[in-house]
Every structure is written in structure tokens, then in C-alpha cells.
Amino acid sequence: MSKSPMTTTQLGYVAKLCEQHSVDKDRADALFKSGLLSDLLAVENPAGIDREAFQKLLTAKPKRRRIPKGLVDSELLEPVTTVSVGRIEAFSAREMMSEGTRYGVKIYKTWDNFKKHFLNLNRTGKNELEVPAQKLRVHKLRKNSKDGPIFAELGGETVVETNLATMYELMKKQGIGQGNGPLLVDGKANIFYIKDDNGILLAVCCLWIANYGWYVGADAISRPDDWDAGDQVFSR
After folding, report:
1. What Cα–Cα distance (Å) separates residue 129 from each residue in 74, 87, 90, 104, 179?
2. Segment 162-218, tens digit of pLDDT
3. Of 169, 187, 198, whose CA–CA distance to 230 is shortest?
4. Which of 39, 59, 83, 109 is most buried, with most CB under 10 Å away?
């Protein structure tokens, strides 16, 4: 049995409602594109719609996301999470972060500047002893940025500085690109600010390249290039 089409009177009632609520062309377009009107028209039993509950749903304010204490939420930085790393008794960059697979961490490539500052420095590489437990803040860049604006929003160079051993401890948990950890494994950079043994603060990054392994680099914080939107920044 075919259904009867809407009558002229019913169509006129719809037009009257639109006039009553001042629905102009732009508002009508937005309503059509939202899909809400389509969803209502598709309801099999309109008589069963709870109008009061529907009105509450439409006027409800979205719940604000709870941001962990100490994280920044701004045009530049999107708060992600915090992650705790335990105390590390001793760490040798040359032993643990040279190219190859060690301690379950597959490092495919270390860039020259990383080798210069952390692997070949003073012929022994960077060694860290009694690295304290740290709680790191994790933020994602909402837009491209140099290091300076990132420092400014996170509280300055002293606050953002962490340790190579701490970064490596996180890499160990995702040594072959596992996705169940705080580090990005989609080709985006994980950025840490770490000093070499000469006290030079550098932007150290690790990024996982599928089918290859971890790439590790180090750049001067005065470098002219931007970090990309979607890269992740770790800081204290």
C-alpha cells in the first residue's frame, strides 16, 4: 500500500514554521547539511519522539575535556597527557643509541648532528648517571612552529629540559614501533629538549619510519625550520 504524499496544507505549515523561526536561506542550508532534519524525517514512529528530551539534547552544552594539571591548551599546543618515567641509574648514549637493535630498540639511523653532540662528544659519548624520576607533559603542535614559541608557552628553557636517558626509556617501550605508548609511530616527530655534555640545549627528536626503524636527530634550537603541526613535544 503506497503512502499518501504531504498535502498542500502540511507543506504550508512547514513554510510557516520556518517563517516563525526566521529561517533564512543560510540557516536552512546549514540545517540541511547537518543531517538533523533528514534524521527526523527518517524516524519510523514520529509519535514516539520525546520532544522534551530532544530539546534538552539540542541545547546541552558540550562537556569540557578535563585537562591534566600543568598542561597547556592554546592555539599552538594541544594537551595530550602526562607520562611518568622512573629513575635511571646509568645511561650510555654510545652503547644504547648507536645504529642497530639493542635492548629491543631498533634504531635505523642517527643523523650527523646527533652523533656529533651525543655519540662522539669527548670520544665517549654522553653518559648520564642517577637520572631522577620524571613526570613529562605531552603536547601536540596544532600548527607549524619554531622552538622559541614552544618554550614560551611551556614555561621557558629550564622547564622544558629533560634527559636522553628518559627519552630512551620511552623508546624501549615502543622499540619496534608498537602503538601502545606515548610516542608517535606514524612518521611524526617526538621532540625532547636535551643538553649535551657542553651544556648546549638541543631539540632531539625520534620518529618511527615503518619498515625501517627509529630515526634520531638533534637540531639547534635556533634552527630556521619549523616543526610540523602534529609533531609531539615532551617537557617537564
Report:
1. 35, 10, 4, 21, 29
2. 999 999 999 999 999 999 999 999 999 999 999 999 999 999 999 999 999 999 999
3. 187
4. 83
- Cβ proximity of 204 and 126 under 8 Å: no
Cell triple for 23 = 529561517
184: which 3 cell numbers? Answer: 608517535
Give the predicted TM-score (pTM) of the model. Answer: 0.72
**First and final C-alpha spacing in the chain:** 70
Picking from 64, 236, 36, the residue whose alpha carbon sits closest to that of residue 136 is 236
Sole residue written with cell 659519548 = 125
The one-letter amino acid code at 210 reads: A
Total Cβ atoms within 10 A of residue 36: 13
